[in-house]
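Lab notes, practical 5.
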Amino acid sequence: MNTHDELENESGKKTLYRIYNDVRFSKDKAPYNPRFALSLRRAAKYRRGGYYLQIKPGNCFLACGFFAPNPSDLKRIREDISVNFQQWNTILNTEGIRLNFGDIQGSKLTTAPRGFDKDNQAIQLLRQKQFILRHDFTDQEVMSDEFLTIVNKVYKSVRPFFDHMTEILTTNADGELMV
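Output from the prediction step:
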């Protein structure tokens, strides 16, 4: 991952989620949560967003993006979507993102956000509160020898999205660095 994005090097204690399996006093010896997951944050204050990978029988996926952007970041993202909708369309329809992720997911507002017209051509993107790209895996893909290569390729394909977000969140309307 560090070959194509700068990531914070945290200890595994903060980035890995283990399988909880304290069954000492339980008749049911099944794990509490049978998943393995990890989350990686992009390094430095100007690189926001992150990566997430979950391995769980029948529910394996990786996700990239912005799970809970702070209000000022969300406002800047929406302003950019409103002004540069064609550029957003181009980025979200690149071959790598379209094939690996599909559409942006996450929670949405039911109406237009405050300050934006409900007839705006970008209203579907403007309503987003989260900007998550998700790729699902089958259990067979996870167990294959090529799984690590596939994960790396899928994560690499999201770079145009992250690069654009970095530009939005670190520069003002004149293109001057704010951070």
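Observations recorded by the TA: Residues 71-83 form the longest helix (13 residues). Residues 12-170 form one domain.
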